[in-house]
Amino acid sequence: QPLPGSPQWLMVRQVEEITLRGAGGRGVSSDPDAELEHYRRLSEQLQQALETRVVIEQAKGVLSVLASTDVDHAFDLLRRHARAHNARLHDVAHAVVHLGLRPADVA
Q: What is the pTM of this model?
């Protein structure tokens, strides 16, 4: 079960909304422009969630190789570093993949 607010949770909620709509549920709005805007925002949010997840998965791969560990432990390294530095997980993952950041437990 995805944690509320996580990218996975957001995607599940959005898919549920689209599914209900396709099953005869009412639209978001009787205004076609407002409905179009709603789905444009929804599309952007889904794209952002996917991009965030990709970077996190890449960082887990990098750290698992460098630390000779499994991806679950690599994720824990990412999470601990983010918490210790009051940073977003995505930002730490981006720094690992693109800037060569190595959390202390890996260096």
A: 0.61
